[in-house]
Protein backbone atom coordinates (compact mmCIF):
# COMPACT_ATOMS: atom_id res chain seq x y z
CA UNK A 1 0.00 0.00 0.00
CA UNK A 2 2.92 2.29 0.65
CA UNK A 3 4.14 1.85 -2.90
CA UNK A 4 0.66 2.72 -4.18
CA UNK A 5 0.64 5.84 -1.97
CA UNK A 6 -2.32 4.50 0.00
CA UNK A 7 -1.22 5.54 3.48
CA UNK A 8 -4.21 7.51 4.82
CA UNK A 9 -7.95 6.81 5.11
CA UNK A 10 -8.60 9.63 2.62
CA UNK A 11 -6.28 8.21 -0.03
CA UNK A 12 -7.61 4.68 0.44
CA UNK A 13 -11.23 5.89 0.15
CA UNK A 14 -10.44 7.32 -3.29
CA UNK A 15 -8.71 4.19 -4.58
CA UNK A 16 -10.33 1.91 -7.14
CA UNK A 17 -11.60 -1.43 -5.88
CA UNK A 18 -9.45 -3.45 -8.36
CA UNK A 19 -6.36 -1.70 -6.99
CA UNK A 20 -7.18 -2.70 -3.43
CA UNK A 21 -8.12 -6.20 -4.55
CA UNK A 22 -4.73 -6.62 -6.17
CA UNK A 23 -3.06 -5.57 -2.92
CA UNK A 24 -5.09 -7.74 -0.54
CA UNK A 25 -5.72 -10.61 -2.95
CA UNK A 26 -9.31 -10.95 -1.76
CA UNK A 27 -12.33 -9.08 -3.09
CA UNK A 28 -14.33 -9.27 0.14
CA UNK A 29 -11.46 -7.95 2.25
CA UNK A 30 -10.78 -5.18 -0.28
CA UNK A 31 -14.41 -4.07 -0.09
CA UNK A 32 -14.28 -3.98 3.71
CA UNK A 33 -11.12 -1.86 3.69
CA UNK A 34 -12.58 0.54 1.14
CA UNK A 35 -15.86 0.85 3.05
CA UNK A 36 -14.07 1.55 6.35
CA UNK A 37 -11.79 4.15 4.77
CA UNK A 38 -14.75 5.97 3.22
CA UNK A 39 -16.59 6.02 6.54
CA UNK A 40 -13.60 7.45 8.43
CA UNK A 41 -12.88 10.02 5.72
CA UNK A 42 -16.50 11.16 5.61
CA UNK A 43 -16.64 11.54 9.40
CA UNK A 44 -13.51 13.69 9.44
CA UNK A 45 -14.78 15.91 6.63
CA UNK A 46 -18.15 16.36 8.32
CA UNK A 47 -16.48 17.28 11.60
CA UNK A 48 -14.27 19.88 9.95
CA UNK A 49 -17.17 21.51 8.10
CA UNK A 50 -19.51 21.63 11.09
CA UNK A 51 -17.40 24.05 13.15
CA UNK A 52 -18.47 27.70 13.40
CA UNK A 53 -16.68 30.76 14.62
CA UNK A 54 -18.78 30.91 17.80
CA UNK A 55 -18.91 27.22 18.69
CA UNK A 56 -18.47 26.57 22.39
CA UNK A 57 -15.13 25.02 23.26
CA UNK A 58 -15.10 22.13 25.67
CA UNK A 59 -13.03 22.67 28.75
CA UNK A 60 -9.70 20.87 28.58
CA UNK A 61 -9.33 19.24 31.96
CA UNK A 62 -6.50 17.35 33.58
CA UNK A 63 -7.50 13.80 34.62
CA UNK A 64 -7.00 13.23 38.34
CA UNK A 65 -6.29 9.98 40.13
CA UNK A 66 -6.97 9.52 43.87
CA UNK A 67 -3.85 10.33 45.87
CA UNK A 68 -2.20 12.02 42.90
CA UNK A 69 0.02 14.95 43.81
CA UNK A 70 -0.80 17.85 41.51
CA UNK A 71 0.90 21.12 40.78
CA UNK A 72 -1.05 24.32 41.32
CA UNK A 73 -1.32 24.75 37.55
CA UNK A 74 -2.76 21.22 37.23
CA UNK A 75 -5.38 21.92 39.89
CA UNK A 76 -6.50 25.02 37.99
CA UNK A 77 -6.51 23.13 34.69
CA UNK A 78 -8.68 20.39 36.20
CA UNK A 79 -11.32 23.04 36.91
CA UNK A 80 -11.43 24.63 33.44
CA UNK A 81 -14.89 25.69 32.26
CA UNK A 82 -16.26 25.63 28.70
CA UNK A 83 -15.74 28.84 26.73
CA UNK A 84 -16.89 30.50 23.51
CA UNK A 85 -14.62 31.42 20.64
CA UNK A 86 -14.23 35.17 20.09
CA UNK A 87 -13.63 34.93 16.34
CA UNK A 88 -16.93 36.57 15.44
CA UNK A 89 -18.40 38.98 17.99
CA UNK A 90 -21.68 39.43 16.14
CA UNK A 91 -22.07 35.70 15.75
CA UNK A 92 -21.38 35.12 19.43
CA UNK A 93 -23.92 37.70 20.59
CA UNK A 94 -26.59 36.46 18.18
CA UNK A 95 -26.04 32.93 19.44
CA UNK A 96 -26.30 34.03 23.08
CA UNK A 97 -29.38 36.20 22.53
CA UNK A 98 -31.26 33.31 20.94
CA UNK A 99 -30.53 30.96 23.85
CA UNK A 100 -33.13 30.19 26.51
CA UNK A 101 -31.98 28.00 29.37
CA UNK A 102 -34.09 25.71 31.52
CA UNK A 103 -32.68 25.48 35.03
CA UNK A 104 -33.28 26.11 38.72
CA UNK A 105 -31.97 29.04 40.71
CA UNK A 106 -29.05 27.51 42.63
CA UNK A 107 -26.68 26.83 39.71
CA UNK A 108 -27.45 30.28 38.32
CA UNK A 109 -26.20 31.77 41.60
CA UNK A 110 -22.98 29.77 41.25
CA UNK A 111 -22.45 31.02 37.69
CA UNK A 112 -23.11 34.62 38.77
CA UNK A 113 -20.53 34.48 41.57
CA UNK A 114 -17.86 32.75 39.47
CA UNK A 115 -17.96 35.53 36.89
CA UNK A 116 -18.64 38.38 39.33
CA UNK A 117 -15.53 37.59 41.39
CA UNK A 118 -13.50 37.42 38.20
CA UNK A 119 -13.95 41.21 38.12
CA UNK A 120 -14.34 42.16 41.79
CA UNK A 121 -11.55 39.88 43.04
CA UNK A 122 -9.29 39.58 39.97
CA UNK A 123 -6.35 38.11 41.91
CA UNK A 124 -8.34 35.04 42.88
CA UNK A 125 -7.76 31.93 40.71
CA UNK A 126 -10.62 29.87 39.33
CA UNK A 127 -10.34 27.34 42.18
CA UNK A 128 -10.96 30.10 44.72
CA UNK A 129 -13.81 31.65 42.75
CA UNK A 130 -15.56 28.29 42.45
CA UNK A 131 -15.15 27.65 46.17
CA UNK A 132 -16.58 31.08 47.00
CA UNK A 133 -19.47 30.53 44.56
CA UNK A 134 -20.34 27.19 46.13
CA UNK A 135 -20.35 28.89 49.53
CA UNK A 136 -22.71 31.68 48.46
CA UNK A 137 -25.12 29.17 46.90
CA UNK A 138 -25.01 26.63 49.75
CA UNK A 139 -25.44 29.19 52.52
CA UNK A 140 -28.31 30.86 50.67
CA UNK A 141 -30.03 27.52 50.11
CA UNK A 142 -29.61 26.59 53.78
CA UNK A 143 -31.12 29.88 54.93
CA UNK A 144 -34.03 29.48 52.51
CA UNK A 145 -34.71 25.90 53.65
CA UNK A 146 -34.82 27.02 57.29
CA UNK A 147 -37.08 29.94 56.42
CA UNK A 148 -39.54 27.65 54.59
CA UNK A 149 -39.50 25.08 57.37
CA UNK A 150 -38.02 22.42 55.08
CA UNK A 151 -35.13 22.04 57.54
CA UNK A 152 -35.01 22.74 61.25
CA UNK A 153 -32.40 23.78 63.75
CA UNK A 154 -29.66 26.35 63.45
CA UNK A 155 -27.03 26.93 60.82
CA UNK A 156 -23.41 26.32 61.70
CA UNK A 157 -22.87 30.09 61.51
CA UNK A 158 -25.53 30.66 64.17
CA UNK A 159 -23.68 28.19 66.38
CA UNK A 160 -20.51 30.31 65.94
CA UNK A 161 -18.46 27.82 63.95
CA UNK A 162 -15.97 29.81 61.92
CA UNK A 163 -15.99 32.93 64.09
CA UNK A 164 -12.64 34.66 64.19
CA UNK A 165 -11.95 33.88 60.54
CA UNK A 166 -11.53 36.67 58.01
CA UNK A 167 -14.55 37.05 55.75
CA UNK A 168 -15.68 38.53 52.47
CA UNK A 169 -19.12 39.68 51.43
CA UNK A 170 -20.36 38.54 48.02
CA UNK A 171 -23.84 39.34 46.70
CA UNK A 172 -24.96 40.21 50.22
CA UNK A 173 -23.70 36.97 51.76
CA UNK A 174 -20.93 36.94 54.38
CA UNK A 175 -18.42 34.17 53.64
CA UNK A 176 -15.73 33.05 56.07
CA UNK A 177 -12.46 32.38 54.26
CA UNK A 178 -9.00 30.98 54.82
CA UNK A 179 -5.83 32.07 53.08
CA UNK A 180 -3.92 29.67 50.85
CA UNK A 181 -0.37 30.69 51.67
CA UNK A 182 2.22 29.64 49.11
CA UNK A 183 -0.33 28.70 46.43
CA UNK A 184 0.60 30.09 43.03
CA UNK A 185 -1.93 29.06 40.32
CA UNK A 186 0.68 29.64 37.61
CA UNK A 187 3.31 27.25 38.97
CA UNK A 188 3.91 23.72 37.73
CA UNK A 189 5.34 22.77 41.12
CA UNK A 190 3.45 20.58 43.55
CA UNK A 191 0.80 22.56 45.40
CA UNK A 192 1.40 23.17 49.15
CA UNK A 193 0.35 20.15 51.17
CA UNK A 194 -2.08 22.00 53.43
CA UNK A 195 -3.62 24.25 50.73
CA UNK A 196 -4.57 26.75 53.39
CA UNK A 197 -4.94 26.70 57.14
CA UNK A 198 -7.72 27.90 59.39
CA UNK A 199 -6.22 30.73 61.39
CA UNK A 200 -7.51 33.35 63.76
CA UNK A 201 -6.60 36.86 62.64
CA UNK A 202 -6.39 39.98 64.76
CA UNK A 203 -8.08 41.88 61.96
CA UNK A 204 -10.68 39.19 61.23
CA UNK A 205 -13.39 41.71 60.42
CA UNK A 206 -15.74 41.58 57.46
CA UNK A 207 -14.72 43.51 54.38
CA UNK A 208 -15.83 44.16 50.81
CA UNK A 209 -13.24 43.15 48.21
CA UNK A 210 -11.57 45.58 45.85
CA UNK A 211 -8.91 44.96 43.18
CA UNK A 212 -6.29 46.25 45.62
CA UNK A 213 -7.51 44.24 48.62
CA UNK A 214 -9.20 40.86 48.51
CA UNK A 215 -8.46 40.03 52.13
CA UNK A 216 -9.26 41.94 55.34
CA UNK A 217 -5.62 42.44 56.42
CA UNK A 218 -2.95 44.31 54.45
CA UNK A 219 -0.53 41.41 54.58
CA UNK A 220 0.82 38.35 56.30
CA UNK A 221 2.50 40.27 59.16
CA UNK A 222 -0.84 40.74 60.88
CA UNK A 223 -1.50 37.01 61.26
CA UNK A 224 -1.19 35.54 64.70
CA UNK A 225 1.60 32.97 64.59
CA UNK A 226 -0.64 30.04 65.43
CA UNK A 227 -3.15 27.91 63.59
CA UNK A 228 -6.53 27.63 65.19
CA UNK A 229 -10.01 26.35 64.57
CA UNK A 230 -12.35 28.75 66.27
CA UNK A 231 -15.80 28.08 67.70
CA UNK A 232 -16.82 31.48 68.91
CA UNK A 233 -14.93 31.73 72.18
CA UNK A 234 -11.42 33.25 71.72
CA UNK A 235 -10.16 30.94 74.47
CA UNK A 236 -10.73 27.86 72.31
CA UNK A 237 -7.59 25.68 72.48
CA UNK A 238 -5.50 25.91 69.32
CA UNK A 239 -5.49 23.04 66.85
CA UNK A 240 -4.21 22.76 63.32
CA UNK A 241 -5.86 21.59 60.14
CA UNK A 242 -2.70 19.75 59.18
CA UNK A 243 -0.04 18.87 61.73
CA UNK A 244 2.64 19.35 59.07
CA UNK A 245 1.35 22.73 57.91
CA UNK A 246 3.90 25.25 56.71
CA UNK A 247 1.36 28.06 56.45
CA UNK A 248 3.22 30.33 58.86
CA UNK A 249 6.20 30.44 56.55
CA UNK A 250 4.73 33.33 54.63
CA UNK A 251 6.16 34.29 51.25
CA UNK A 252 8.75 37.06 51.34
CA UNK A 253 6.90 39.34 48.93
CA UNK A 254 5.62 42.72 50.06
CA UNK A 255 3.10 43.40 52.80
CA UNK A 256 0.49 43.73 50.06
CA UNK A 257 0.88 40.06 49.12
CA UNK A 258 -2.62 38.86 48.39
CA UNK A 259 -2.97 35.06 48.64
CA UNK A 260 -5.77 33.03 47.07
CA UNK A 261 -8.67 32.09 49.34
CA UNK A 262 -10.77 29.07 50.20
CA UNK A 263 -14.37 29.53 51.29
CA UNK A 264 -14.68 27.96 54.73
CA UNK A 265 -17.54 25.48 55.21
CA UNK A 266 -18.75 25.86 58.81
CA UNK A 267 -21.05 22.84 58.44
CA UNK A 268 -18.03 20.67 57.72
CA UNK A 269 -16.12 22.07 60.67
CA UNK A 270 -18.95 21.18 63.03
CA UNK A 271 -19.51 17.63 61.74
CA UNK A 272 -16.27 16.10 60.47
CA UNK A 273 -12.67 15.65 61.64
CA UNK A 274 -10.37 18.41 60.47
CA UNK A 275 -7.51 16.20 59.41
CA UNK A 276 -7.12 13.00 57.42
CA UNK A 277 -3.93 11.06 56.90
CA UNK A 278 -4.79 10.68 53.20
CA UNK A 279 -2.75 13.46 51.53
CA UNK A 280 -5.04 14.13 48.59
CA UNK A 281 -8.64 13.44 47.71
CA UNK A 282 -10.08 12.15 44.45
CA UNK A 283 -10.25 15.77 43.24
CA UNK A 284 -6.54 16.33 43.74
CA UNK A 285 -7.07 18.60 46.75
CA UNK A 286 -5.72 17.72 50.20
CA UNK A 287 -8.15 15.94 52.50
CA UNK A 288 -9.20 17.36 55.83
CA UNK A 289 -9.78 20.99 54.87
CA UNK A 290 -13.29 22.17 55.86
CA UNK A 291 -13.82 24.11 52.63
CA UNK A 292 -16.37 24.32 49.85
CA UNK A 293 -14.94 22.08 47.15
CA UNK A 294 -14.49 23.93 43.82
CA UNK A 295 -15.03 20.70 41.87
CA UNK A 296 -18.54 20.44 43.31
CA UNK A 297 -19.40 23.88 41.99
CA UNK A 298 -17.95 23.10 38.56
CA UNK A 299 -19.73 19.76 38.22
CA UNK A 300 -23.00 21.29 39.37
CA UNK A 301 -22.89 23.94 36.67
CA UNK A 302 -21.88 21.51 33.92
CA UNK A 303 -25.05 19.43 34.38
CA UNK A 304 -27.59 22.14 35.23
CA UNK A 305 -28.29 24.24 32.14
CA UNK A 306 -30.59 22.47 29.70
CA UNK A 307 -32.13 24.11 26.64
CA UNK A 308 -35.69 25.33 27.13
CA UNK A 309 -38.40 23.86 24.92
CA UNK A 310 -41.01 26.50 25.81
CA UNK A 311 -40.40 28.64 22.75
CA UNK A 312 -40.30 25.77 20.25
CA UNK A 313 -40.99 22.04 20.35
CA UNK A 314 -38.00 19.74 20.77
CA UNK A 315 -36.59 18.29 17.54
CA UNK A 316 -37.71 14.73 16.77
CA UNK A 317 -35.34 12.11 18.06
CA UNK A 318 -33.69 9.81 15.53
CA UNK A 319 -35.34 6.41 15.29
CA UNK A 320 -32.19 4.58 16.37
CA UNK A 321 -30.17 6.35 19.05
CA UNK A 322 -28.43 4.53 21.84
CA UNK A 323 -28.96 5.67 25.40
CA UNK A 324 -25.29 6.51 25.81
CA UNK A 325 -25.31 8.60 22.62
CA UNK A 326 -28.39 10.49 23.80
CA UNK A 327 -26.81 11.19 27.18
CA UNK A 328 -23.59 12.38 25.54
CA UNK A 329 -25.54 14.74 23.29
CA UNK A 330 -27.51 16.10 26.25
CA UNK A 331 -24.32 16.59 28.26
CA UNK A 332 -22.68 18.45 25.37
CA UNK A 333 -25.71 20.72 24.97
CA UNK A 334 -25.61 21.62 28.67
CA UNK A 335 -21.90 22.41 28.53
CA UNK A 336 -22.48 24.61 25.48
CA UNK A 337 -25.23 26.45 27.34
CA UNK A 338 -22.95 26.99 30.31
CA UNK A 339 -20.34 28.50 27.98
CA UNK A 340 -22.94 30.93 26.64
CA UNK A 341 -24.15 31.86 30.12
CA UNK A 342 -20.64 32.48 31.47
CA UNK A 343 -19.74 34.57 28.42
CA UNK A 344 -22.90 36.67 28.79
CA UNK A 345 -22.19 37.28 32.48
CA UNK A 346 -18.61 38.23 31.68
CA UNK A 347 -19.82 40.79 29.12
CA UNK A 348 -22.24 42.31 31.63
CA UNK A 349 -19.75 42.64 34.48
CA UNK A 350 -16.95 43.85 32.19
CA UNK A 351 -19.19 46.63 30.87
CA UNK A 352 -19.71 48.05 34.38
CA UNK A 353 -16.57 47.38 36.43
CA UNK A 354 -14.52 50.39 35.24
CA UNK A 355 -17.45 52.76 35.75
CA UNK A 356 -18.84 51.80 39.14
CA UNK A 357 -15.98 49.82 40.74
CA UNK A 358 -15.99 46.43 42.47
CA UNK A 359 -17.98 47.37 45.59
CA UNK A 360 -20.92 48.79 43.66
CA UNK A 361 -20.75 45.99 41.08
CA UNK A 362 -21.03 43.43 43.86
CA UNK A 363 -23.94 45.37 45.38
CA UNK A 364 -25.86 45.44 42.11
CA UNK A 365 -25.19 41.83 41.15
CA UNK A 366 -27.95 40.29 43.30
CA UNK A 367 -30.52 42.67 41.80
CA UNK A 368 -29.46 41.63 38.30
CA UNK A 369 -29.66 37.98 39.29
CA UNK A 370 -33.20 38.57 40.61
CA UNK A 371 -34.23 40.05 37.26
CA UNK A 372 -33.16 37.07 35.16
CA UNK A 373 -33.58 34.10 37.51
CA UNK A 374 -36.27 31.52 36.67
CA UNK A 375 -39.76 32.17 37.97
CA UNK A 376 -40.99 29.50 40.40
CA UNK A 377 -43.94 29.07 42.72
CA UNK A 378 -43.81 30.80 46.07
CA UNK A 379 -43.15 28.89 49.27
CA UNK A 380 -42.34 25.19 49.54
CA UNK A 381 -43.94 24.42 46.19
CA UNK A 382 -41.21 26.38 44.43
CA UNK A 383 -38.31 24.76 46.29
CA UNK A 384 -35.91 23.46 43.65
CA UNK A 385 -38.32 24.47 40.90
CA UNK A 386 -37.08 25.11 37.38
CA UNK A 387 -37.92 27.71 34.78
CA UNK A 388 -36.64 29.63 31.79
CA UNK A 389 -33.64 31.97 31.81
CA UNK A 390 -33.46 34.14 28.68
CA UNK A 391 -29.88 35.12 27.98
CA UNK A 392 -31.16 38.07 25.92
CA UNK A 393 -32.51 39.54 29.20
CA UNK A 394 -29.07 39.10 30.73
CA UNK A 395 -27.34 40.74 27.77
CA UNK A 396 -29.67 43.73 28.13
CA UNK A 397 -28.10 44.47 31.52
CA UNK A 398 -24.88 45.63 29.87
CA UNK A 399 -24.01 49.28 30.29
Q: Please summarize the sheet with the most strands.
A: 4 strands, mixed
Portion of residues within helices: 40-55%
Major sheet strand order: 6-4-5-7
Separation of the first and last Cα atoms: 63 Å
Order of helices and strands: HHHEHEHEHHEEEEHHEHEH
| Content-based structural category | alpha+beta
Instruction: Provide the low-confidence segments as ranges.
Output: 45-53, 197-256, 274-278
Query: In what range is the share of β-strand residues?
Result: 5-15%
Number of helices: 11
Give the overall form: elongated
Number of beta strands: 9
How would you state the average pLDDT, rounded? 75
What is the alpha-carbon Rg in Å? 26 Å
Q: TL;DR?
A:
It is built from 11 helices and 9 strands. It is an alpha+beta fold.
Provide an overview of this structure:
It is a single chain. It contains eleven helices and nine strands. It has helices at residues 9-13, 17-24, 27-50, 72-77, 89-97, 105-120, 126-148, 266-271, 294-302, 323-372, 391-395; strands at 56-57, 83-84, 100-104, 167-170, 173-179, 206-207, 261-263, 306-307, 386-390. A hairpin with a 2-residue loop joins β4 and β5 (173-179). α5 (89-97) crosses α10 (323-372), α6 (105-120) crosses α7 (126-148) and α6 crosses α10 (323-372). The termini are far apart. It has 399 residues and is α+β, with helices and mostly antiparallel strands.
Amino acid sequence: MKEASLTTPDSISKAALPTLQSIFGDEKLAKQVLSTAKRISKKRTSSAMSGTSHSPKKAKTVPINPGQELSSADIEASLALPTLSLTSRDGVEADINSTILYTNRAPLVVAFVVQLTKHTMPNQPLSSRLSLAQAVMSMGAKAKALNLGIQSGKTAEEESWGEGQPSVRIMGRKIAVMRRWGYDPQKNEQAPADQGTIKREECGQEFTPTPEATSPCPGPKEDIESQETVKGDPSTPPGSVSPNSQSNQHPPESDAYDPPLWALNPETISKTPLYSTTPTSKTGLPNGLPIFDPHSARNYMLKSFATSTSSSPPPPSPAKTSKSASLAKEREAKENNLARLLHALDLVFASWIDTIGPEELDRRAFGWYSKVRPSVEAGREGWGGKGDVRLADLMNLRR
